[in-house]
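Priority: medium. Attachment 1 of 2:
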């Protein structure tokens, strides 16, 4: 158990660091726990990762909140719908074959990477392209979609939320990251409520991982706020490309 715990805590630190900047820390943390603890049910391992995820995300959200002005109507619409959708996703996680969804995610990520790379001003400046009512409606719709995905699978949720806040709602990278963290807290909380009520959390691993995830989030948030939007854009691209490679490898390896 000691070796497994050390490996998981190391991964949790890196995941917290990445997640605080651009989201997507789960893309490192989730495959790692599936590999390191192969004898446990998938639902149990996914539930366990939610504890460190919500710890790091909460710290990052707190630090962002001190320097970012939140759009509370948009935030509430997205967070509330995402919460209930994540509950449904967590309920269904043991009833749907995740391998069916992986190829779809890979295609989406390729599109995200190309769009971000080709559009040099993407997320650099805040753009208000919609009326408030339309922003709230869109936030609620995408909250449902991404919240359901987070409860069902999880990895990459932060990156998808950031993409929506930028491409759909017109935020810059820093603002998008801040809002995404709050929504991600809601989805993680929903999943934790379900997984803990059904005994699907290994607290002996989850608590130490949470401490290391917090540490990573502290340094990641500090770096993001120090370096600004251009740095976060580059980091976002790196994480998305890494995610594409990871999903492509999984799909080719398993033949799904």
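Attachment 2 of 2:
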């Amino acid at each position: 158990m000691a070796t497994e715990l050390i490996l998981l805590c190391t991964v949790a630190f890196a995941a917290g660091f990445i997640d605080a900047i651009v989201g997507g820390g789960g893309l490192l943390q989730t495959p790692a726990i599936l590999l390191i603890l192969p004898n446990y049910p998938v639902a149990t391992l996914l539930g366990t990762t939610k504890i460190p995820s919500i710890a790091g995300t909460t710290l990052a959200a707190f630090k962002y909140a001190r320097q970012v002005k939140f759009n509370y109507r948009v935030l509430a619409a997205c967070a509330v719908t995402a919460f209930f959708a994540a509950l449904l996703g967590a309920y269904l996680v043991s009833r749907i074959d995740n391998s069916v969804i992986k190829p779809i995610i890979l295609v989406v990520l390729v599109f995200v990477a190309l769009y971000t790379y080709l559009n040099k001003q993407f997320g650099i400046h805040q753009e208000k392209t919609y009326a408030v009512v339309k922003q709230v409606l869109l936030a609620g719709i995408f909250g449902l979609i991404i919240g359901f995905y987070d409860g069902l699978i999880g990895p990459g949720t932060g990156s998808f939320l950031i993409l929506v806040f930028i491409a759909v709602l017109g935020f810059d990278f820093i603002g998008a990251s801040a809002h995404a963290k709050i929504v991600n807290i809601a989805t993680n909380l929903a999943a934790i409520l379900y997984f803990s009520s059904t005994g699907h959390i290994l607290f002996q691993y989850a608590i130490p991982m949470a401490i290391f995830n917090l540490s990573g989030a502290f340094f990641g948030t500090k770096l993001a706020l120090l370096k600004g939007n251009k740095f976060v854009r580059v980091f976002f691209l790196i994480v998305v490309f890494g995610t594409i490679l990871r999903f492509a490898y999984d799909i080719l390896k398993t033949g799904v």
